[in-house]
Design goal:
By secondary structure, the chain is mainly alpha-helical. The chain is built from 28 helices and 4 strands. It is globular.
Length: 562
C-alpha cells in the first residue's frame, strides 16, 4: 500500500469494507478547520483503550474536535482557556497548526490498527489545517500502518446557512486556536452579515484584521482597518485600528517594507485617543497596550532605553487593573526581560522571566527565552530544565527540541543531540538550523556520508548558506577534493566574514594544500573572532612548518589552557 494524491473524484465504492471509516469529505464549507481530523478523532478517541495516549494529546484533540472535550479532558493548557474574551490578547503564530498536525499525526499513528486505510475527497477544498495535517500524516505515518488516499474533488457541500452568531463562535474559536486562514475567511462573511459599526461587526472586523495580519496578508488587513475608520466614530475602535495599523508596519514580514515612521504616527494617534477614554480600567489597559507597541518601534530603531521606559510605564498602568488581564502583564514582563537581557542586566531579566512564567507556567515561549538566556550564561542545567518544561507543555515544539540539542551538544551528549535534531527535522523538514547543527555533529563524528546528506538537504532549502558551506568545505577537505573545498570555503568567508569556523576550516585546507603561510593567516583571523583550543593547536602546526617556533610554542600553551 502507498499514500496517494489523486486529481478528480474518488471511485463510487472505494473498497468500503477495508476502510477504517467511511469516505471522509474534507470540504471546509460545513465545518471549517480540521474537518478530516475531527472525523478521524471521533472514530479513534472513543475506541482508544490507552487513556495515556489520549491524555498525551489532549490539547491537539480538543483543538481539532471540541466535541470530544469531555473524553479528552484537559491535563495541560495555558491560562488563556479560562479567561474572558477581552482578556485573551494572544493570537497563536501560524506555526501552531504545524505543532497540532504533528501531535495529531502521532496520535493517529499510534491509535490505528496496522493495515488501516482512509479515503478523503474534496482535498482541493479542504481548510489549510487539514491540508497541512494530511501532508504531515503522509510524511510521518507509514502506509503499512495507515494508507491515505486524497482525491481533489467530491460532492458539493450544502449551502452555508450559518447566522452571524454561529459565525462569531467559529471565528472566535479559530483566532483562539490559531486557525488564521479560517478566521479570515469566516470573519469576512461575518462582516457581510452584520450591521456596520455595531458591536458584533466590530468584533468581526478586529478578528479578521488580526488574522490577516498574522498571515502576512498586509494589504487586506489594511483594508479592514480602513473600513473601521470609515465606518465608526467610536474612540476605542479608532484607537484599536490605529494600533493594528501600526503593527502592520512595525511587524511587516518583509523588513525592507517596514515603515517605522508611519508606525510611530499611528501609535501616537492610538495613545492620544486611549488617553481620553473615560473608563479608568479600559484607559489603563489600552494605553499600556499602545505604549508597549511604541516600545517595539523604539526597539526596531535600536533605542533600548526608550523602549524600556515605555514598557515600564505600561507595567505601571497594568497595576491599576488588579487581577484582570494576566496575559497583558505576562507579555509586558517578558518584553521587559528581553530588553533587560539585551542591556546586560541579567539578574533583573531572569527575575522578570520568572514572574512571566509564574503567571502561565504552561506557556512555552517564555520558557524558551529564559532557557536561551541561561544557556548563554553557561547555566546549562537550568537551561535544560526550561527546555524540557517547554517540551512537555504542549504539542511537539521543534524549537524546544532544537534548543535541548544545543545543551546536549555542549555537555558532550552527541547521541542525545543527534536524536533531538532528527526529531526536529521529522517535525519540520524546513528547519534549516537543525540541518546545520546535525551536519556539523556528524562531520565531527566522522560520519561524512550522513553529514553530506544533511548539507545537501540544507542547501536545497537555502542555497549559499555559509554554515552549510563551511561543513561542505570540511567534508571536501577530508576527502582530498581541495579545489571544491576551496570553492565552498571561499564562498562561506565571503558571505559571512565573521564566521570563525569558515576561516578555521579554510586554514586547515590551506595547510593541507601546502600553504602554511595562508593557513596561519586564516587561522589567525579565526582566533581573533573566536579563541578556541583547536584553532590554536592547528595554527601551532603551521607556525612550526614556517620555522616560527616561539610563536608555535605560545599557541601550544594556549591550546592547553584555553
Amino acid at each position: 500500500m502507498t499514500h496517494r494524491t489523486v486529481h478528480g473524484e474518488p471511485p463510487g465504492a472505494p473498497g468500503a469494507a477495508r476502510l477504517l471509516l467511511p469516505l471522509i469529505d474534507a470540504h471546509r464549507g460545513p465545518r471549517g478547520p480540521y474537518t478530516v481530523a475531527a472525523a478521524l478523532l471521533r472514530h479513534l478517541v472513543p475506541l482508544e483503550r490507552s487513556r495515556q495516549l489520549v491524555a498525551a494529546h489532549d490539547i491537539e484533540i480538543r483543538a481539532a474536535a471540541p466535541e470530544l472535550a469531555a473524553t479528552a479532558q484537559a491535563g495541560r493548557g495555558t491560562i488563556d482557556d479560562g479567561l474572558a474574551e477581552d482578556e485573551r490578547i494572544l493570537v497563536p503564530a501560524p506555526r501552531r497548526t504545524l505543532r497540532l498536525a504533528n501531535g495529531l499525526a502521532e496520535f493517529v499513528r499510534d491509535a490505528v490498527p496496522p493495515g488501516s486505510r482512509i479515503v478523503v475527497c474534496n482535498g482541493a477544498h479542504a481548510d489549510p489545517t487539514d491540508t497541512e495535517l494530511l501532508d504531515v500524516m503522509m510524511r510521518r505515518i507509514p502506509p503499512a500502518t495507515l494508507a491515505i488516499s486524497v482525491y481533489s474533488a467530491g460532492p458539493e457541500p450544502p449551502p452555508d446557512t450559518r447566522d452571524a452568531a454561529e459565525l462569531w463562535a467559529a471565528v472566535d474559536r479559530c483566532v483562539r486556536e490559531g486557525f488564521l486562514h479560517a478566521a479570515a475567511e469566516l470573519g469576512e462573511r461575518g462582516l457581510a452579515r452584520t450591521e456596520p459599526g455595531g458591536d458584533l461587526w466590530w468584533r468581526f472586523a478586529h478578528r479578521t484584521a488580526t488574522a490577516l495580519g498574522g498571515l502576512g496578508r498586509t494589504e487586506e488587513a489594511w483594508a479592514v482597518w480602513d473600513l473601521v475608520r470609515l465606518t465608526s466614530q467610536d474612540p476605542a475602535m479608532h484607537a484599536a485600528a490605529a494600533y493594528g495599523s501600526a503593527m502592520l508596519d512595525a511587524r511587516h514580514p518583509d523588513r525592507a517594507r517596514r515603515d517605522l515612521a508611519r508606525a510611530r504616527r499611528w501609535l501616537n494617534a492610538a495613545i492620544a485617543i486611549s488617553t481620553l477614554l473615560p473608563d479608568p480600567a479600559e484607559r489603563a489597559f489600552k494605553l499600556g497596550f499602545d505604549r508597549n507597541g511604541l516600545a517595539l518601534v523604539e526597539l526596531r530603531h535600536g533605542r533600548l532605553d526608550a523602549a524600556l521606559a515605555l514598557v515600564e510605564s505600561a507595567i505601571e498602568l497594568a497595576r491599576e487593573l488588579g487581577t484582570r488581564h494576566p496575559l497583558h502583564r505576562m507579555v509586558l514582563l517578558a518584553n521587559r526581560a528581553q530588553l533587560l537581557a539585551a542591556m546586560g542586566h541579567v539578574k533583573e531579566a531572569l527575575d522578570d522571566y520568572g514572574a512571566a512564567v509564574a503567571i502561565d507556567p504552561e506557556f512555552p515561549d517564555h520558557l524558551l527565552e529564559r532557557g536561551n538566556l541561561l544557556f548563554r550564561l553557561g547555566r546549562y542545567d537550568e537551561a535544560l530544565a526550561d527546555f524540557e518544561r517547554a517540551v512537555r507543555a504542549g504539542p511537539p515544539l521543534p524549537e524546544a527540541y532544537y534548543n535541548r540539542a544545543e545543551v546536549r551538544t555542549v555537555r558532550g551528549d552527541t547521541e542525545g543531540a543527534l536524536a533531538d535534531l532528527a526529531y526536529v527535522i521529522e517535525l519540520d523538514p524546513g528547519y534549516l538550523d537543525a540541518y546545520v547543527n546535525r551536519a556539523g555533529l556528524l562531520a565531527a563524528a566522522g560520519r561524512d556520508d550522513e553529514a553530506r546528506a544533511d548539507v545537501t538537504a540544507g542547501l536545497a532549502l537555502k542555497p549559499g548558506d555559509p554554515y552549510l558551506l563551511t561543513v561542505l568545505g570540511q567534508l571536501e577537505t577530508a576527502a582530498g577534493r581541495w579545489e571544491s573545498a576551496g570553492t565552498a570555503l571561499d564562498a562561506a568567508v565571503a558571505r559571512a566574514p565573521e564566521l570563525a569556523a569558515a576561516w578555521g576550516n579554510r586554514g586547515v585546507l590551506r595547510y593541507a594544500a601546502g600553504d602554511p603561510a595562508g593557513a596561519v593567516a586564516d587561522l589567525t583571523r579565526a582566533v581573533e573572532l573566536q579563541p578556541d583550543p583547536d584553532l590554536y593547536a592547528n595554527r601551532a602546526v603551521a607556525l612550526r612548518d614556517l620555522g616560527r617556533i616561539e610563536e608555535a610554542e605560545q599557541d601550544e600553551r594556549r591550546a592547553r589552557t584555553a
